[in-house]
Write a structure and sequence with these properties.
heterodimer, A: 20 strands
Chain lengths: 463, 348
């Protein structure tokens, strides 16, 4: 019954004859089982089972080895099968295979799923086959490094590798150095940022892609403040680095602008950040996001903004709302993550990696791939995200019409320039100046944000 | 000797059959899986190197268990000892010593010291305060992993970053590299062989080994014969901790090249499974470690080539262990052996 789906199977030009295998083995097993049942369970013979210690002296090892060898060779009753032709209809203008290395599971309703669907978009657009490796992080896969996975993918014919987490830095730099002929994309990294701190000009095959999520986070913060009654907003942060600091700051600026737009005083806005320590929950290593969100709500927070890869914040908020509390949440990363808990979800700032990834795949296909640093701005018209925008904001069921209009209006005022988000006067937590009155910070200063902003509560990760 | 080898071959064979049955129930082709596992773990020099490196670490973890087994105690603190070994390694890698060519040696020595310190702690909890070694060991694991998280996001964090993703990479001079350009883990293997031989001689050829085993066999009797059981428990745990520390230091200096919170990678707990299978037999520890390592390393291919879930290697491993334990507990293997070989012989 179990073997009905394949009687012969071909692996690497070797054919396994299951039917004949089973026939022969059934006879053997039958004999063995008969012996066991007869020998062991026959009352006269029970004493024999106690005597097994004496086998040493009376054993005939040759006989047993012969039987074992027979059994194993039978298991491998194989023969070469007609080599089925390599179905690689090599098309000069497109790639056959590409690798996608994910830090979490491919269906996490968050960061990794957004990348996975970006890969699926390539499959649909140019027909290339995606090789996926998920859970590639030191906690889930301690014996697997990014460089090893990349090497395995290249072995299988991948012409393009996507490493999709900032945590993969060491591994993808190593992989890019040891496979200079294979194009790679390290999403969110800065190895190709010519003015950047970690510019690696020698890695001509490693590009970077990131969306200007600052816009999405600005809208997320804005929507959160607009829906908040108490002005207490909890921000569930992952780990602390340049990227998370600048995105958290953008969320705060959005919250500030909308809070003031509602006619409130800035002193009533409490924006608290708690970092769990990694992009997602690792038991025993990071803080538990479930606990953090519960603590937020216990302390009077009525809107939680999630910035981690996975949607725990949505689930917890939904539970608390079901218990009668007036709490709402903003998701992150994945366009449809509001579907997890539609009733309490104000909206989600999301990534749409498809267009950028398809572009990279096409450029590898026609040999025009280069180690670019792309920090792609969203396509917003009147504050509404276009279909093919790299980043965007999608409203959920819990977003009121008033908030929707406010978010769209304020987002539209940014004119698509990321520096407008961080326009002065704007100070860091320790009072140092990011941009003075009427000035805008440079892209470098925005990318390498050293601290959280004045007015926010939370750790900046400084020494 | 024949008997043990033959019995274990039968047990392995039967375990593989039960794994096959489980895989068939899960509607995947077992031969495809085995083929990919083998190919992924022994298909190229690079893959063999990876497999042997992981096997070395698992075997060391298994050895650490075997030592305390001989005194009749569980060394559940093995994960903590590995973590401490890695902490010791990182401690050295962050000092000026890391720049010298002999840095790997100092790293291993410090890993050993740190690990044995933690082993000693377990033993003191057991002998002085009468804490059961399983609870003491678990507690110590928690302390060690708490400490490592504190170090990684606290004093040893990357500049301007607070992430549990790990510390900065060690300087290249302190990496334990392979031989020549390849990754073949010659030094870890040499270390493991030294540990193996030392343990073998210690446990079977020295009076200390005999006293350890005497303590394990019957503590009260050992005391009557003026063998200080407390002292020997301390010895066993110090030795076990030292071996665990070596494993952790290798893990840090040779695989990750940095300190990450889960640096023990669960190999300590796998070591417990290995010791469960192997009993006190050091050689079996090595064999099982290689099998497990090939499942772990080759398991990545299941995901990459067959698109299977990344939990498959763990399913295979746990089914294997479970059926092995059932087979051993019910003595099916020895009964089968008896039937196959000497149906006629009357052992009466």
């Amino acid at each position: 019954m179990l073997i009905q789906f394949h009687f012969t199977y071909c692996y690497k030009n070797v054919k396994f004859y299951f039917l004949s295998l089973i026939k022969v083995n059934i006879q053997l097993f039958g004999a063995i089982i008969f012996c066991i049942s007869w020998k062991i369970f026959h009352p006269d013979n029970l004493i024999h089972t106690r005597g097994y210690i004496l086998i040493d002296k009376t054993i005939n090892p040759k006989r047993l080895i012969f039987i074992l060898v027979c059994l194993t060779t039978l298991l491998l009753a194989v023969s070469a099968c007609s080599s089925d032709s390599d179905s690689s209809s090599s098309n000069s203008s497109s790639i056959d295979k590409f690798g996608m290395i994910l830090v979490g599971p491919r269906d996490d309703k968050g960061w990794s799923q957004a990348h996975f669907e970006g890969g699926e978009a390539i499959e649909n657009a140019i027909g290339a086959e995606m090789i996926v490796a998920d859970f590639i992080n030191p906690a889930d896969s301690p014996n697997t490094t990014v460089a090893q996975v990349a090497a395995d993918m290249i072995d299988q014919g991948a012409k393009l590798i996507f490493a999709t987490s900032d945590d993969m830095k060491d591994g993808i730099l190593e992989a890019a150095a040891s496979h200079p002929d294979v194009s790679m994309v390290w999403s969110t990294g800065d190895s190709a940022f010519k003015d950047g701190k970690d510019y690696k000009p020698e890695l001509e095959n490693l590009a970077n892609v990131m969306g200007q999520m600052e816009f999405g986070k600005y809208m997320a913060g804005c929507a959160a403040a607009s829906e908040s009654k108490s002005g207490n907003i909890g921000f569930l942060g992952p780990l602390i680095n340049d990227e998370t600091r600048r995105l958290t700051n953008a969320a705060y600026i959005g919250a500030r602008d909308c809070w003031l737009d509602k006619g409130n005083s800035i002193s009533d806005l409490n924006f608290e950040v708690i970092w769990i320590g990694f992009w997602f929950h690792i038991p025993g290593v990071t803080l538990d996001p479930t606990t953090v969100v519960n603590d937020f709500i216990d302390s009077g927070v009525d809107v939680v903004i999630s910035h981690i890869d996975t949607p725990e914040a949505l689930t917890v908020t939904d539970q608390r709302a079901a218990a009668g509390e007036d709490v709402l949440v903003v998701g992150y990363d994945y366009e449809n993550s509001c579907d997890v808990t539609p009733e309490v979800c104000i909206g989600v700032p999301y990534f749409n990696w498809g267009p950028a990834y398809i572009d990279a795949a096409k450029r590898v296909g026609n040999n025009s791939f280069s180690a670019d640093f792309q920090w792609i701005a969203p396509k917003l018209t009147n504050g509404v995200t276009a279909e093919d925008s790299m980043v965007g904001f999608k409203g959920g069921n819990a977003m009121s019409e008033e908030t929707r209009k406010r978010v769209n209006r304020l987002a539209d005022q940014l004119n698509g320039d990321i520096a407008n988000i961080f326009a002065g006067p704007i100070n860091f937590q320790d009072g140092s100046v990011l941009a003075s009155e009427g000035k805008k910070p440079s892209l470098y200063d925005i990318w390498y944000t050293p601290q959280l902003l004045e007015g926010m509560t939370g750790d900046s990760g400084g020494n | 000797m024949y008997k043990i080898i033959l019995q274990n071959s039968i047990a392995t064979f039967l375990s593989v059959i039960s794994v096959t049955i489980v895989l068939l129930i899960l509607q995947v082709m077992p031969f495809e899986i085995y083929g990919n596992l083998f190919d992924g773990s022994f298909g190229s020099l690079d893959k063999i190197s990876r497999t042997l490196l992981i096997a070395t670490i698992m075997a060391l973890a298994g050895f650490a268990l075997v030592v305390t087994f001989s005194t009749g105690l569980w060394n559940i603190g093995i994960e903590g000892q590995m973590l401490f070994g890695a902490i010791g390694a990182t401690f050295i890698a962050r000092t000026f010593l890391a720049e010298y060519f002999f840095a790997p040696i100092i790293i291993i020595i410090f890993g050993t010291l740190f690990g044995s310190f933690l082993g000693l702690l377990s033993a003191i909890l057991k002998t002085r305060f009468n804490v059961h070694e399983i609870f003491g060991g678990l507690g110590i694991n928690f302390v060690a992993s708490g400490l490592i998280v504190y170090l990684v996001i606290g004093p040893w964090k990357r500049e301007g970053i607070a992430s549990t993703g790990g510390t900065d990479l060690f300087p290249k001079s302190s990496w334990i590299n392979g031989i020549g350009d390849s990754n073949f883990p010659i030094y870890p293997i040499i270390i493991a062989i030294i540990v193996f031989i030392t343990l073998f001689i210690l446990l079977s050829r020295t009076s200390l080994g005999l006293k350890l085993i005497a303590t394990g066999t019957n503590k009260d009797a050992a005391d009557k014969f003026k063998i200080d059981s407390v002292k020997h428990i301390l010895y066993a745990f110090i030795i076990a901790g030292a071996i665990g520390g070596i494993a952790g230091a290798i893990q840090a200096a040779s695989i990750h090249h940095k300190l990450v919170p889960n640096i023990a990678g669960g190999y300590g707990f796998l070591g417990i499974l290995i010791a469960l299978i192997a009993g006190r037999n050091l050689f079996t520890v090595v064999v099982i470690s290689i099998i497990f390592a090939s499942i772990m390393v080759g398991g990545v291919q299941l995901q990459l080539r067959l698109g299977l879930d990344s939990s498959f290697p763990y399913i295979i491993e746990s089914v294997f262990v479970m059926s092995w334990l059932i087979i051993k507990a019910s003595k099916i293997d020895s009964k089968l052996l008896m039937l196959l070989v000497n149906k006629e012989t009357d052992f009466g």
